[in-house]
Amino acid sequence: MSHDLLIAGAGLSGALIALAVRDRRPDARIVMLDARSGPSDQHTWSCHDTDLSPEWLARLSPIRRGEWTDQEVAFPDHSRRLTTGYGSIEAGALIGLLQGVDLRWNTHVATLDDTGATLTDGSRIEAACVIDARGAVETPHLTVGFQKFVGVEIETDAPHGVERPMIMDATVPQMDGYRFIYLLPFSPTRILIEDTRYSDGGDLDDGALAQASLDYAARRGWTGQEMRRERGILPIALAHDAIGFWRDHAQGAVPVGLGAGLFHPVTGYSLPYAAQVADAIAARDLTTASARRAVRGWAIDRADRDRFLRLLNRMLFRGCPPDRRYRLLQRFYRLPQPLIERFYAGRLTLADRLRIVTGRPPIPLSQAVRCLPERPLLQERA
């Protein structure tokens, strides 16, 4: 084998795997292949400090573009500040950490298997461990809604006055599902304004959402120069058959990231799950078979623990009228901060789950009961 580890896809999941393996095995021969010409400036990955292990927090803190000690949410009938740390990284900074990795841009993979990659020019690269981190693919084992967003980053003419991330400003008019504005203040005069929709359909009108972000800025009195835009269509899991997925992937390269359904079901955040998967791979022998066992075991266990989160999504998407979805989130953000932190980290306890669903039902009981079964949604896709 010419390499110890081959990773197809130089996005978040692939980069974190390369980092974890390199830190554990500095002499490992790692090659990363990506069809793009270089890292995109249209990706900002964020998460709560409590989502990451102390080791990953320390590893990524030096490249965080934004780092804050608290955050806010706002709804029509409830606003709140939470003292939970929050941070953001960008693709270029993350790629900059991959010293010693053979990173090949403009490299197009024709086929990927468990011993390497055949490129479109006919050449072959072989490796003992082969990972497929090329992004989301459609699968009958995952039924999703969509989180769609377009963000506009501007340099304001005067200080914008936003001191901390606004995770959700849902005081805006509701449309196309649950809508909110997401704000990241990178400096007193630099801010990312992101119009976000939790929608049933995956179509994205870039121009309309970008204009909605700019209109929000105008209402806040922010004028200035547009610096960049970013967009995304993230899956929100309603039903997931992880065992069936891995039965279909018993051979070949090991899928990770969005392509393997490895993301927080409710938020679509992929950074915390990607870090944990990277640790699982790095702790094993560098072979495709060993990596498959590690990722498959982690993914099936994670999918089982995330059943409750997918139920919440079904209540949101299938049990609640689109223009009233914000009420479920408004109710959730009245819960204790430690519970909210465990929710984002995917570490809910049984007591947490009971606390979320007890009290006045967020949707009528008859509709909630219809949301309980998960299997019918998968059968719809069969």
Short account of what is shown:
By secondary structure, the protein is an alpha/beta fold. Helices cover 33% and strands 29% of the residues.
Can you offer a commentary on this structure?
The protein is α/β, with parallel strands linked by helices. The chain has 3 domains: 3-68 and 85-140 and 239-305, FAD/NAD(P)-binding domain, CATH 3.50.50; 142-237, D-Amino Acid Oxidase, Chain A, domain 2, CATH 3.30.9.10; 307-381, no CATH class. Helix content is 33%, strand content 29%. The chain is built from 13 helices and 17 strands. It has helices spanning 12-24, 54-60, 91-96, 206-219, 242-248, 271-282, 288-305, 307-318, 326-332, 337-345, 350-357, 365-371, 375-381; strands at 3-8, 30-33, 44-48, 66-68, 71-75, 78-82, 86-90, 102-104, 109-113, 116-119, 124-132, 142-156, 166-169, 178-187, 190-199, 224-240, 254-255. Strands 1, 2, 8, 9, 10, 11 and 17 form a 7-stranded mixed β-sheet that branches. Strand 5 and strand 6 form a beta hairpin. Helix 6 (271-282) packs across helix 7. It is globular. The relative contact order is 0.16.
